[in-house]
Design a protein that fits this description.
The protein is of the alpha/beta class. The protein has 15 helices and seven strands. 47% of the residues lie in helices and 9% in strands. Helix 1 crosses helix 4, helix 4 packs antiparallel against helix 5 and helix 13 crosses helix 14.
């Protein structure tokens, strides 16, 4: 809430037009003065409907525009301000549980990607690890690093569809379909399309299941597709501070063992022409699950199941395999992972 326009916009979205609060506030005052005055006025205003305080309505609107960590703090505040009758019957909404699952571990990978984005407008990453270790969830977590990306649709390609992994020619055809272009579109025209979009917005390319690609095909694809994009970015960088990102998703940890060249550090001379090897994903150790459940206690009024302990969670998930951890947690909340929460994966 740094400027008058943003302040009025949040109040309009939360309360609608012509509410008394809007006429009681001085919108052009410093933030340190405005926030306390706003809270006082909302408390005085009371509820906008039965069991829905005006302050909670505003917090829910602000929640839509912030990162995961801040969302958790806002959720705790909302619970604190809800009347007792509301908190007694509240259950964990599926979208909230999904956001909480995103916070289990992966801090090392997220921090590294954030560091890279501060230094490079063009970046490529290999997301890899043992099977069922949360590769898709990490992609989704990384996609939330910038709040602006929530309005951005990634260019996502599963290289196993139509056996695209067999050759670079098939991969070009698949990529052309992603841009709604004829399958025989020339590679340079596809690259032009990507660079044109990059001039005005972030472009995020995701290639899934690259472990199914023969190493020679993956090497050839990086040479034919990615390296020309990197060169274009150097010759004609976007005027705006936009990013061109590529994520290669390896679901079994085989790419790093092949002859595909990977960067171990993002300050290497060859980066970003070759993808950065992110720390591999692996089963969650008990301490990670213990810490996550401890942090969950801030949501004490969200009916956290009493039998959801880190020991039980670790044992029931085949010693912390992430995919099984997500499924087990959902079961405790009477929700489904595959049939429910997984739909929010990128």
């Amino acid at each position: 809430m740094e400027n008058e326009s943003q302040r009025r916009g949040y109040l309009f979205r939360a309360l609608g037009t012509n509410t008394p609060v809007q006429y009681q506030l001085a919108f052009n005052t410093p933030t340190n003065d405005f926030i306390p005055n706003l809270v006082n006025e909302l408390v005085v205003y009371g509820e906008i409907s039965s069991g829905k305080p005006a302050l909670c309505a505003l917090l829910k609107v602000i929640r839509e525009d912030v990162g995961i960590d801040v969302q958790a703090t806002i959720d705790a505040l909302i619970v604190e301000f809800l009347p007792p009758a509301a908190t007694q019957t509240i259950s964990t909404p599926p979208h909230l549980l999904f956001d909480l699952l995103l916070q289990i571990d992966f801090k090392q990978q997220v921090r590294l990607v954030e560091d890279v984005l501060e230094q490079h407008q063009t970046a490529a990453f290999l997301i890899h690890g043992e099977p069922d270790c949360g590769q898709e969830l990490l992609v989704t977590r990384l996609f939330r690093i910038k709040s602006a990306w929530k309005n951005n649709s990634p260019i996502k390609n599963d290289v196993t569809i139509n056996a695209a992994y067999r050759s670079t020619e098939r991969l070009w055809k698949q990529l052309a379909r992603s841009f709604v272009l004829p399958q025989d579109t020339k590679p340079e025209n596809i690259i032009d399309k990507i660079c044109d979009r990059w001039q005005t917005q972030d472009v995020i390319l995701i290639f899934e299941k690259v472990d199914s690609m023969p190493p020679k095909v993956l090497v050839g694809w990086l040479q034919e597709f990615w390296e020309p994009l990197v060169d274009r970015g150097k010759l004609n960088p976007p005027l705006k501070d936009t990013h061109l990102l590529m994520f290669l998703v390896d679901n079994c940890g085989s790419v790093c063992k092949s002859q595909v060249m990977l960067a171990k550090e993002f300050d290497e001379p060859e980066y970003p022409r070759i993808p950065l090897y992110l720390p591999p994903l692996s089963p969650f150790p008990p301490d990670i699950l213990k810490d996550w459940l401890r942090d969950m206690k801030v949501f004490r009024d969200l009916q956290i199941p009493a039998d959801l302990t880190y020991q039980r969670l670790w044992e029931k998930s085949d010693n912390g395999i992430p995919q099984f951890v997500y499924e087990e947690i959902c079961t405790h909340f009477d929700l489904s992972w595959e049939g429910g929460l997984a739909k929010w994966l990128i």
